[in-house]
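Pair request: fold both.
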Amino acid sequence: MRSMILTLLSALLVSSASAKDIRISLDWAWQGGQAPFALAEQAGMFKVEGLDVVIDRGNGSADTVTRVASGAYDVGFGDLGPMVKLAAEQPDKALLAVLMLYDRSPLCAIALTKSGIKAPKDLEGRTIASPETDAGRVLFPGFAKATGIDTAKVKWQTVAPQLRETMLFKGDADAITGFITSGVFNLTGLGTPIEDIVVMRYADYGINIYGSGIYVRPGFAASNPDAVKGVVRAVIKAHQAAMKDPAAAIAALKKRDALIDAALEQQRLGMINDQLITTDATRAKGIGTVDPARLARMIATIADAYAIKTPPAPDLIYTDRFLPPQADRLLPAKL
């Protein structure tokens, strides 16, 4: 409590006239995964960095990339797959990741036990519902290759993002692809018992890629290095705080969207903290730790999925020069 009060008092010392205006686009609606951003905003973590921020919900990672590349937003948070695709297809609009938040990818295929699907190979001869641009669908060929699925035996049904879990729940599809953090909790929200949900995580089958992160336009980073550093520091602090006190993060989320199911969103946040952010690598070296060799393999995997002939170089996709010292990026001790 004392540290929070000091943070807020420090925020009051920042002159609004000198504060840098920053527009941030999230990847999706205000849910558990977005709660740390609400916490950072309401606890004055951006103000301490001399930033006046406006944070808006997103409509999918691909749309967030477009928002930032167009200049409508300064900072984006989302899956890095669409960002790599943009860098390969339109190098002049390439974005630069400045913080890797999710050390493990949330991509997965999901089915229900009543379908009889127990393993990836069981998806053959079945219908999978997913948006056409869904990262899980785009990277499915890599998942299929790793698990021996004959993709010619899989039928795809294109649906709107908000409909896929409902279709699976009603039996109109045999499986879906997407983020584990969306699929599992949206299904439980519909009344599906957790034990009836079959999750096939790509990461468990050799698709060892990073998940979501923070990115900006290279020109913006070059012109506003202190602002970018401030955003990165605030976002890291907010995620550390959300790990220590998830209830506080969900309370902040509730202020952004009063209609959320607080209990469900706290469970979603817990999954993100435990399964996507907390790994052996981040326990040892902190949030934002990136292995160059793994990053290169990730880019190659994404390039293969999108049929990109010339993958962008890793240093055009990610930089660590805006990160705070490792000591400031470590996970809370209790974790």
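--- second member of the pair ---
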Amino acid sequence: MGILNITPDSFSDGGMYLDKSKAIKYGLKMIEDGADILDIGGESTRPNAEPVSQEEELKRIIPVIKGILSVNNDAIISVDTTKSFVAEEALKSGAKIINDISGLTFDPYLQDVINRHEASVIIMHIKGYNNIIEENYDFLYLQTSKAQSAGINNILIDPGIGFGKTIDHNFEIIKRLGDLDSLGFPIVIGASRKSFIGNTLNLDPAERDTASAIINAVALRNSARLIRTHNVKYGVQTIKLMNKIC
């Protein structure tokens, strides 16, 4: 899953792809490099980021979704949003997956939109706790059960690396991903260039791709099925190597 942030303030690539033509070109390049899914976001989810109106979010992402699909109709597009109205318009425009960092807790209408469009959803754990694995598991169990009750069939889960967690929490999640495997849903990992890597190794975001690939390799070994990454070439190489080992 290649990351395409159409924002001015994302922690790694903020402002690089605000221009529609640049975003479309980069999205198509990630597919060429081997991305199976493009995850497009119009609102930064970094800590202390400014909220974005649904109108602004749509203005950023919809032309890019349509532009990519006009060139490559087979592209699988995920939209990183917590808003039901944004999800509605994105799915109408051809997106197939909604990636909700709130795990269907911010917008009570979002699951109905996903169900109506027969879309897939990534349910993420956003908070940090003391017993990070147990409470992560309980949250994901509760929210996936609610989604299934609402009629959503295609569900993935994300333990939420970097969202409300300490550095130790993030490493604990990577080590114990197998504990979430019994929930029965494919596990998505979004560790790419996150601050827990940078703080551990004293690296700026642009310098974290090799370390991100190492973390992704361990995550794949420990039950992850989808890696969300800024560097698609590294991601593809990591998966190819791990498929030979695992």
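Observation on the second member. The beta strands are 2-5, 38-41, 77-80, 97-100, 120-124, 155-158, 187-189, 224-227.
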